[in-house]
Amino acid sequence: MTLEDFYFISQVVAAAALVVSLVFVGLQVRQGNKMAEEAAKQTQQANLIALNEMDLHVTEGIRLNYQAFGTDPMFLRSLPRALDNETDFSPEEWTQLYHYFANLVMSADMVKLASKRGLIEDDYWPRIQRGVVHLIRRPVFFEQWQGLQRSGYQTPEFYNDINALFREMYPDCGNPEYQGEPEESVGLMEGDTANA
């Protein structure tokens, strides 16, 4: 064998090695794409599971809210009066209205959290937010809103969003923000997912 033969053989081996390495790289890219698709499917499934859990949690909250309030004759008489801007309620009626509103605000905060995490449609939170703001315009709920802000149960971001929309929708109705120091917080802190 001559030097030219060795050169020719080495060129063939190098070309074959190049083809083999390109095939190997192609297989790796293909495998990587399959893994990425599988990871995307798993993420999508996890999001659907989280959405279903959130939907079940909100639906259960609405059911319990209806069960607790929607069948009580005293509440069914006092809610329309509160919506008509009445402020003269018995202590029992006041307590029922407070708990109804507090449950509604808690549900709204959960919807905001779910929206922020991309678990529900983007337009759902603004609709809920407007509903809460509409209630705060009523004197009995305005006072309760300030009490809820004092408690610090929801995140400051939640209160700020609601208060900003209130000022935008009803600029002549006063400031919904509580002006004092918040009481000791008993609720979730930002990023806490214990009940989310």
Describe this structure in words.
With 196 residues, the chain is an all-alpha fold. The protein is 74% helix and 0% strand. It is built from six helices and no strands. The chain is rod-shaped and about 110 Å long. The chain starts with a helix and ends in a 27-residue tail after the last helix.
Major beta-sheet overview: none
Oligomeric organization of the protein chains: single chain
CA radius of gyration: 30 Å
Uncertain spans: 182-196
Total number of strands: 0
The averaged pLDDT comes out at: 76
Computed structural class:
mainly alpha
Q: Strand content of the residues, in percent?
A: under 5%
* Amino-to-carboxy terminus distance: 77 Å
The helix tally amounts to 6
Overall geometry comes to rod-shaped
- Helix % is over 70%
N-to-C order of helices and strands: HHHHHH
Short key terms for the protein model shown above:
196 residues; 74% helix; disordered C terminus
Topology overview:
Blueprint: H1 3-70, H2 73-83, H3 91-116, H4 124-136, H5 139-151, H6 156-169
